Amino acid sequence: MSRSNVIHPILWFHAILLLTFGCSPRLSNADSDLIKKYEQKLGTTISKPAKSIALYRHIDEWWGTPYKLGNLSKKGVDCSGFTFITYKEVYGKEIPRKSMDQFAASSKIPKRKLKEGNLVFFNIEEKNKVSHVGIYLKNGKFVHASTSKGVRIDSLGSDYYKKSFKKGGKFSP
């Protein structure tokens, strides 16, 4: 075998580095810190942070926004307004404005198959009527506009949300 037909090991190493890291999106230090912050809140790792960063940036911008029925601003937002805005700004999808309409328009997903970005619906006020909606994140946690504490993350496993969970829902692309 001639020397010209042998690829030098250093060239192989650089080729592998380029293929491994050259094409994958890099997170800025601020985005890496943001992902770490939400991994702590969720109690799990975010396996595809480059895919999820827009959602967590959005949550961070709206964090603590007070609940205000019928509003769609950072001065106040209701639960379905928050999901409506999030889907529009993060996913580029137009979904219905009201929780009952979001419920009716989404396809049902069992709780055990929920994925980041799916909606979660609850019957809090009346037994057979959807009265609350949030967005599933990971590890049994979801983000929503709480009437008492504004935009925040809570657990589907808490007694309050466990007893009122109605369905998970998703919108087709």
Short summary of the structure?
By secondary structure, the chain is an alpha+beta fold.
From the spread of the alpha carbons, the general shape counts as globular
Structural class designation: alpha+beta
Tell how many strands the DSSP assignment holds: 8
Percentage beta strand: 15-25%
Mind telling me the C-alpha Rg? 21 Å
Distance between the termini: 54 Å
Arithmetic mean pLDDT: 88
Strand order of the largest sheet: 3-8-4-5-6-7
Indicate the multimeric state. Answer: single chain
Task: List the secondary-structure elements in sequence, H or E.
Answer: HHHEEHHEEEEEHE
The percent range for helix content is 25-40%
Report the major sheet.
6 strands, antiparallel
Please work out how many helical segments DSSP would assign: 6
Low-confidence stretches: 13-24
Task: Please outline the helices and strands.
Blueprint: H1 9-22, H2 29-42, H3 49-62, E1 72-73, E2 76-77, H4 79-91, H5 99-105, E3 107-109, E4 119-122, E5 132-136, E6 141-146, E7 150-155, H6 159-164, E8 165-170
Antiparallel strand pairs: 1-2, 3-8, 4-5, 4-8, 5-6, 6-7
Characterize the structure shown.
The chain has 173 residues and is of the alpha+beta class. 39% of the residues lie in helices and 20% in strands. It contains 6 helices and 8 strands. The strands form 2 sheets. It has a 6-stranded antiparallel sheet. A two-stranded antiparallel ribbon has the order 1-2. Strand 1 and strand 2 form a beta hairpin. The radius of gyration is 21 Å and the shape is globular. About 7% of the residues have low confidence.
